[in-house]
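Technical annex, item 7. During the second reporting period the consortium partners agreed on a shared format for inverse folding records so that results from different sites could be compared directly. Each record opens with the tokenized structure and is followed by the designed sequence. A conforming record, contributed by the partner at site C, is shown below for reference.
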């Protein structure tokens, strides 16, 4: 299967985009405590074994699961949003002479996401169909859960210089392909944007 082929050849860099300002939450979301661990460690626990290396993008000095597989870097230029984080990851690959051909991106604020969803997502991908793939659940597109070809680096850099900021608009302009999945029960893409969301997540964890 395509997933196995990619993993055997270590072609994907797992990347957690933790560089947002968390303005609606009021503090760095990656560091908030949910049950017995900080928020960033939920997504790391699900992806750490799926990739040879995991890159965290954050402009703060943050705590996270200790692992030799994880590197922490800041954005090459601040205030470029998630697209800037993707570009920073691609630049890190290029500058460090890594052999990754794809960047898999994940947000920092989705504690219910499971590695089985990642596996299902990549299993359905045909790399010849697009240079960019997003997950779509119950017909809602998730623009941060993506697989980005390193071939997009130059175009992404040029478009950011021209003012591109919105992931959705940029992805549409270059031709993104979505992989749809159905989740009839609890939404694994529930994300924490506010203190109210955090309280809801605590309740959901009790029933998980």
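Designed sequence (site C submission):
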């Amino acid at each position: 299967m395509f997933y196995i082929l990619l993993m055997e050849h270590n072609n994907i860099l797992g990347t957690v985009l933790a560089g947002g300002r968390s303005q609606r939450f009021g503090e760095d979301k990656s560091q908030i405590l949910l049950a017995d661990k900080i928020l960033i460690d939920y997504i790391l626990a699900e992806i750490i074994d799926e990739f040879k290396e995991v890159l965290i993008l954050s402009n703060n000095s943050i705590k996270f699961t200790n692992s030799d597989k994880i590197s922490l870097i800041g954005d090459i230029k601040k205030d470029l949003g998630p697209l800037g984080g993707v570009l920073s990851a691609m630049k890190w690959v290029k500058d460090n002479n890594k052999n990754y051909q794809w960047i898999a991106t994940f947000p920092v604020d989705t504690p219910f996401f499971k590695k089985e969803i990642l596996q299902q997502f990549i299993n359905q991908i045909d790399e010849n169909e697009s240079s960019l793939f997003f997950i779509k659940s119950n017909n809602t597109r998730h623009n941060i859960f993506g697989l980005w070809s390193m071939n997009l680096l130059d175009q992404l850099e040029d478009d950011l210089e021209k003012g591109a900021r919105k992931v959705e608009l940029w992805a549409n302009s270059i031709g993104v392909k979505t992989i749809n999945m159905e989740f009839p029960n609890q939404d694994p893409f529930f994300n924490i944007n506010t203190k109210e969301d955090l309280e809801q997540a605590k309740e959901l964890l009790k029933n998980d």
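Residues 1-9 have pLDDT under 50 and may be disordered. The longest helix spans residues 81-95. All partners now use this format for quarterly exchanges.
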